[in-house]
Structure formats: C-alpha cells, structure tokens
C-alpha cells in the first residue's frame, strides 16, 4: 500500500480533498455494512466491533465510533498528531455503517450473501484508497500501528499482524463472526487498495519551471 504512494498518481485539485475524504469514509462504512449482511466473516476490527455490539446492545456504527475514539486516545503516549481525516474517520464511518445497514435487505440465500461479501471487499479497497489518497490524516487504527512502529523501531508488518491477531481473537471470544470472508479480506485488501491508490492519491501541483 505504501509503495503505491510512491508511484505517480493523477493530480487531484486541493478543493477536492475534503469531499474525497468524506466520500471515501462513507463508502468505507457502506462496504462494512455489506460484509456484515453477508454473514460470511468480517475483517479483524469488525469482528471486534460485532462482538462488542452483541454484548452491549449498541449499534454497530456507534461501537465502531467508540472504539475509534478509544484507539485515538492511545495516540497520546505515541505522540501521534491527528488530522482532519482522523477525526472524520471516527464520526463518518460509524454513521455510514448504521445508515447502510438500515437500508440493506438481509439476504438469506447463499448467492446474494456471496455477492454482498465480494462487493463489500472490493468497495472497501476502493474506499480505503479514496480516503487515504486525500492525505488529510490516517485513521485511528492505522495511526496506532504506524505510531507504535515509529516509537519502537519494530517493523510495520509485525506490528500490524500482532495487533490484528489480538483484535481478531478478542472479537471472536466476544462472539464476532469469523469465516471465509475473514480470510478473503486478509489476502485481498492490500492488493486491492494498492491497485486503486495511484488513481485517487492527491499530490501537490508542481509550479511551472
């Protein structure tokens, strides 16, 4: 994913950065709702969110926002600085999840569930690229990972793996859904996001020489 940012992306006007950020976050929340409705397995953080939803009775979106806020507090000892995108991430995704869940039908047959899962994962990759490409601040969970790496010198791959395994395990114990969707998300979300990033990443326009 980070490698894709070093490629030459299409220049996006600065006036489009905030709308791009908000669109990406909303689509991200919608993609989460598709995967939830598929009931075929969620990504690690959403397994945790679902588990917490089951034991608290709070909506999925509200739990997502609350967890994001708690994770954001963990930035303080890591001396990470949030951006507009960081705060927006906490609020917009949570609202988008709940709104989309309210609008989506609940599929019972396997085929529509598979389509929801596949569509949700692809949309998630696109949405992540869109909001990351706006370059207005990382999400709370991404910032936690990169902040810990910066403070400890540990590799990003190791830190992310450990964090997501722990989150997945806790979510599963709390009753979150693990399945084929969890595996598919893990192996495809990186390549999908990397493929979309060069198309939507904002870069400063270089002054004419």
Automatic annotation (TrEMBL):
<feature type="transmembrane region" description="Helical">
    <location>
        <begin position="21"/>
        <end position="38"/>
    </location>
</feature>
<dbReference type="Pfam" id="PF19700">
    <property type="entry name" value="DUF6198"/>
</dbReference>
<feature type="transmembrane region" description="Helical">
    <location>
        <begin position="90"/>
        <end position="108"/>
    </location>
</feature>
<dbReference type="InterPro" id="IPR038750">
    <property type="entry name" value="YczE/YyaS-like"/>
</dbReference>
<keyword id="KW-1133">Transmembrane helix</keyword>
<keyword id="KW-0812">Transmembrane</keyword>
<feature type="transmembrane region" description="Helical">
    <location>
        <begin position="165"/>
        <end position="187"/>
    </location>
</feature>
<feature type="transmembrane region" description="Helical">
    <location>
        <begin position="58"/>
        <end position="78"/>
    </location>
</feature>
<protein>
    <submittedName>
        <fullName>Putative membrane protein YczE</fullName>
    </submittedName>
</protein>
<feature type="transmembrane region" description="Helical">
    <location>
        <begin position="114"/>
        <end position="134"/>
    </location>
</feature>
<keyword id="KW-0472">Membrane</keyword>
